[in-house]
Amino acid sequence: MSATRRIHWMKYASASNFYPLANRLVPLFMGLAIALAVIGLYIGFFVAPVDYQQGNSYRIMFLHVPAAWMSMFIYLLLAMYAIISLVWRVKMADIMAYSLAPTGAMFTFIALLTGALWGRPTWGTYWIWDARLTSELLLLFLYLGYMGLYSAIPDRQRASRAASFLAIVGVVNVPIIYFSVVWWNTLHQGSSFSVSEGASMTSDMLSALLLMAFACWAYTIAVVLRRAQAVILERKKVALWASQISKNKEA
Amino acid sequence: MKARSKRLVLIGVIIVAFGAAVMLVLNAFQENLVFFHTPTEVKAREVAYDRQIRIGGLVEKGTFKREEETTTVTFNVTDGESSILVSYTGILPDLFREGQGIVAEGKLLTSGVFVASHVFAKHDETYMPPEAAEALKRAEEKAEATVQQATTKPTIVEKGE
Predict the structure, then answer these.
(1) Domain B35-121 top-level CATH class
(2) Which of B26-30, B43-47, B116-120, B128-132 ranks highest by mean pLDDT?
(3) What are the boundaries of each domain within chain B?
(4) Which residues from B are below 8 Å from A when comparing CB atoms?
(5) Helix A131-152 and helix A156-170: axis angle, to 10°?
(6) Which residues pair with B66 in a beta bridge?
(7) Does domain A25-250 have CATH number 2.40.50?
(8) Which phi and psi angles does A83 have, rounded to 5°?
(9) Domain extents for chain A?
(10) Closest chain B CA to residue A192
C-alpha cells in the first residue's frame, strides 16, 4: 500500500468536512430507502404467500423484524460512538451518538408496538413479561434514559459524559435481548435465521424481509446524517451567541 | 500510560465488570426467570400447589375435550415424557390446536389438575405457505408408514437383503 492511497479516516471527524458530505449522502439514502421500502412492501403484501398457521397476520413481521434488528444494532453503534467520544474526545462521535438515539428509540417502539398487535391474535395477549419482551422494553428505557440524561444536565460536556456512560453500561442488555430466546423459555419464538440451517421461510418472504431491512438501514443513515447536521448548526449557533455576548461584555 | 489509554482501559474494565455482575444476577435468579415449567419439571420438583405458575408444552393429540354448552375445555399438556391435565374456561387463541405448543398460566391443584386462567399459543419460527405445510405433512406420514412397515415385517426386510 502506498502512502498516497491511504484514506484519511479522521478527515470526516471534523464538522466542516462532514457537513457537505452529509448534504450529498442524505438525498441518496432517502431515495434508496423509499425505493427499497416500496419494493419490499409490494413483495411482502402481494407476492409472498400466506402462512399455513397464521394466515395473513404474519405479514407484520416485514416491519417488526427489521425494526427489532435496527433497535439493537443502532444501540451498538450508539455505544461505540459513546466510547469514541469518551476516550478520544471526538466531538463528531458525540454528535453521531446523540443523533442516533431518537431513531433507535423509534425502531424499538415500532418493534414493541407491531409485536403487541401481532401477539394479540397469535398468542392471545398484547403483552407478556417474558425475557425477550422485557429486555426489549428495557432497551426503550435505555434510549429514553440516554436522551433524558443528555438534556437534563445544562452543561453540555458533562451531559455528554454522563449520557455516554449510561449508553456504554447499557450495552450489556443487547446480547441479553438477542439470546433471550435461547437462554430461557420464552413465549416469543426463536430466530428464523440460523447459520447452519438458513432461514426457515420461503424465498419470497425472505426477500421482502431483507429488502425492508435494507430500507430501514438506508432510512436510518439518511435521517441520522440530517439530524447530525442540525445538531452541528445548533451547537455552532450557541457557540457564536456565547462568543458574541462575551465580546459585548468586553466592549 | 496516556490519559486516553487510561480512559479506554477504564471503560473496558467497567463493561466487563458490569457484564459479569449482570451475568451473576441472572444466574442467581435463573429459577425465577423461568417463563414456564415443563410437565416433567412440575412432576419431578413438585412445584408448589395453589401458586400462580406457568406451564408449557404441546397439546397432546386426542385429549382435547369441550364441556357441552360452556367455554370450559380440558386437554393434556405434554413434553413427550409426562403430561398434565389442564382445565380452562375462556376463549382460546386462534392458533390453539392439538399438537400445538402452548403456555398456560394458572394454579396446580392438589388433585394434579392444572386450572389455567390464561392460555397462550406459542408460535414457532417457521413460516411457510399452506401447500408446503401439506406436502411436508404427507412426506412425514409416508416416512412413518415405511418405518412401520419395516418394523412390523422384519422377515421380509431380511429376505430382501
Answers:
(1) mainly beta
(2) B116-120
(3) 1-33, 35-121, 130-160
(4) 4, 7-8, 11, 14-15, 18-19, 22, 26, 33-36, 56, 91-96, 103, 118-134
(5) 170
(6) B73
(7) no
(8) -65, -45
(9) 25-250
(10) B125
Q: What is the pLDDT of residue B122?
A: 84
Q: What is the distance between the alpha carbons of residues A81 and A78, in angstroms, rounded to a whole number?
A: 5
Q: For residue B96, list chain A residues with Cβ-Cβ distance below 8 A.
A: 124
Read off the pLDDT of residues A130-158 as tens digits, 9 standing for 90 and up.
889 999 999 999 999 999 999 999 999 99
Q: Convert the pLDDT of each residue in B61-101 to its tens digit.
A: 888 888 888 888 999 998 888 889 999 998 888 788 888 88
Higher-confidence residue: A239 or A75?
A75
**Chain-chain contact of A131 with B35 (C-beta, under 8 angstroms):** yes
Interface ipTM: 0.71
Nearest to A123 among B4, B93, B124 (CB): B93
**CA–CA dist A81, A159 (Å, integer):** 15
Q: Do B120 and A189 touch (CB under 8 A)?
A: no
Place of cell 425492508: A212
- How far apart are the C-alpha atoms of A85 and A93, rounded to whole Å? 5
